[in-house]
Amino acid sequence: MEQSAANKPAIEGGTPVRKTKIYYGHQYIDDADVQAVTEVLKYADLTCGPKIKELEEKLCALTGAKYAVVCSNGTAALHMAAKAAGVGEGDEVITTPITFAASANCALYCGARPVFADIDPETYNIDPQKIEEAVTERTKAVVAVDYTGQSVDLDPILKICREHNLMLIEDGAHVIGTKYKGKANGSISDMTTFSFHPVKTVTGGEGGAVLTNDETLYQKLLLYRSHGITRDTGLMEHDSDGAWYYEQVELGFNYRMTDIQAALIISQLDKLAMFRKRRKEIVARYNEAFSKIPSLFVQKEIPESDTTRHLYILRIVPKKLTIDRKQFFEALAAENVCCNVHYIPTYYFPYYEKLGYKRGLCPNAEKLYEEIMSLPLYYSMTDEDVESVIEAVTKIAIYYAAE
Ligand SMILES: *Cc1c(COP(=O)(O)O)cnc(C)c1O
Q: Are the CB atoms for 222 and 48 separated by under 8 Å?
């Protein structure tokens, strides 16, 4: 190996590929977004106003779903969806460990037990076969996560759910803009949840949504969003006392979204096609560069999913390198390429350990966790940013290649 300054990793005293730090994700806010928020602050209701309906209609138009209920965040969306699915005390909910904690926590909120099913080792999404194996008579629902924005293989999962009478909740926090067999994700599962956190493809600061085609689920979600309170006389048990009258008919929450967030999300959705195009370009460029490097494994894409990628996962092949993931991650940071890791298997967390979960449950997920880091992927990355990330990864992979 030549030891010139150009190909010596910064962590070994070489020159960093980038002068400034780049992070794995960043929101993109333009003047139209600022104006949309400013206008709602000046002229409209700050909550329960017209922007909420407008956003819900826009999400339905975007996905083809019949109903949308927007809410305070993606976690609230999952909680409401699990409750609407009828998940309760003593039930089991099957999900993947390679996700944000909220995907399993929604079962715990309802008094149910999350059951972890392993992932496919190449797509990293939950393996339908492993779902089937995990079903018991207590299973009530499946929370399937479209990890990185690639759709889970919905058809086999739906088949299992229909056979065993399970509700399919799709955790679509990463999936906005993706299509499965030509249909937008959000219109296919019993319920699909979205998140509008700033690292996601479209943001409202915070925000979430549940999409469904089922009117009964929709009515439940509306109630849960706002304390279980209704002003609809058709849903009331007593006669109305007057114009002020409302009833609490369920135990709900305050999971409402503000009109300020809704206005921002509406404006952001106008840029979704643009976001999608740029994300696809960056992913294609990364895939092209990394597929040539034997010590890197490129995530498998299934032809059924036309993917808008939320995360780009760099995966190392440990036996082809002299360093491990932690060292690779630190070497990239020294080049000023600041990654993250998505995700630590949920059942590794102390809270889950105390509930009795043990390591070894999902070997594919555990192996994945040892080998991955999330590279920068967001709309406003320049071509130079993308090339500098590729240069940094390549430099490290070549320098530390095993014989
Ligand atoms: C972000 C995320 C959530 C939670 O969304 P919030 O809006 O942050 O509450 C849930 N599941 C997955 C897979 C996520 O990435």
A: no
